[in-house]
What does this fold into?
Amino acid sequence: MTDLYSLKNKRVFVAGHRGMVGSAIVRRLKDEGCEILTASRSELDLRDQSGVRRWIAERKPDAVVLAAAKVGGILANDTYPADFLYENLVIETNVIEASFRSEVGKLIFLGSSCIYPKFAPQPIPEDALLTGPLEPTNEWYAIAKIAGLKLCQAYRRQHGVDYISAMPTNLYGPGDNFDLEKSHVIPALMRKAHEAKLAGEKQLTIWGSGTPKREFLHVDDAADAMVSLLKSYSGDGHVNVGSGEDIAILELAKLVASVVGFEGEIRNDPTKPDGTPRKLMDVSRLFETGWRPKYELKTGLEDAYAWFREHVEKGEARLNVA
Ligand SMILES: NC(=O)C1=CN([C@@H]2O[C@H](COP(=O)(O)OP(=O)(O)OC[C@H]3O[C@@H](n4cnc5c(N)ncnc54)[C@H](OP(=O)(O)O)[C@@H]3O)[C@@H](O)[C@H]2O)C=CC1
Ligand SMILES: C[C@H]1O[C@H](OP(=O)(O)OP(=O)(O)OC[C@H]2O[C@@H](n3cnc4c(=O)[nH]c(N)nc43)[C@H](O)[C@@H]2O)[C@@H](O)[C@@H](O)C1=O
It folds into this structure.
């Protein structure tokens, strides 16, 4: 990738710096010679428009990474539709508008692969957006993310600002949410397998049929891709960020069990939703820049499990999320 925008000596605000992606982006930015600006939720609730405007106006970041959001797995999205639509709309509109007001030169907004239609062609190209109905379990979050992507495009079109959007696939790794009801599939299966192994249990339950397929990317790879795009991408269109490979949930469960060392049987809970059958993204626009992920799935899971074990023992893993 050729750099269009240097981060050296720039002030970069990472919104959502304590989250899994935000903390990975902070780690990745350490190599860029920039000043990293952060604010905890207690200092700055990003739902407070006047607070966000004041904070950004006072600190005048040169660039913003918008990684803050209300995030959760399939059951959380399906259970709390108002929270996922409202909070994500408010957070993204506040940060994008306040960045424009304070003349922030570069902003990257993080969307999600769930913005695409439930039955989009696979692998899903960026132009599949808004070509069909969404997956019902996360349409609320998806509509918020589509709005954020469109808002960046609108500010570019009306005011000429260089605000870009990335659509990450399912992410996992250090700092993930391990709450069994609200998390995504990898942290949930990792924790279930870990606890079943310690308890000597003989079975592990997965949600749904196990037949849906999902693409996964380690969060450190995602952070590297975001920083690369921040420096080298300037365009109206959003960019898919993924590994380019997917796996069926049942196969994933077997892989997680082998990484954790759980040897019992895997059962299905058909009362839980499968969600979209597949959402493998076409990542050729990203790969054409020369970027490639460093982790393949098994080594990524081993890294994530090592982090989980260490932080559970220290009481620092997010096991119960409000
Ligand atoms: N995880 C995944 O699989 C994927 C994630 N993404 C996107 O990546 C981004 C980060 O996700 P991820 O790191 O997994 O999520 P996390 O839940 O781990 O982190 C979200 C962060 O946003 C902060 N936040 C949420 N609401 C507010 C608020 N009102 N005011 C201030 N801060 C707030 C949280 O603060 P606090 O720590 O105080 O709760 C947290 O630091 C999101 O935009 C998400 O949509 C996209 C695709 C996949
Ligand atoms: C990133 C993306 O993530 C969400 O979409 P999702 O990919 O469907 O989310 P998920 O990771 O929770 O599930 C993936 C698959 O896995 C199956 N599954 C099995 N067993 C468990 C389990 O124990 N927990 C969970 N969560 N899922 C399980 C589950 O039934 C489903 O078939 C969006 O809401 C939205 O947040 C978004 O953008």
Summary: The pocket of NDP (ligand 1) is lined by residues 16, 18-22, 41, 45-47, 67-71, 91, 110, 112, 168, 170-171, 177, 184 (CB under 6 Å).
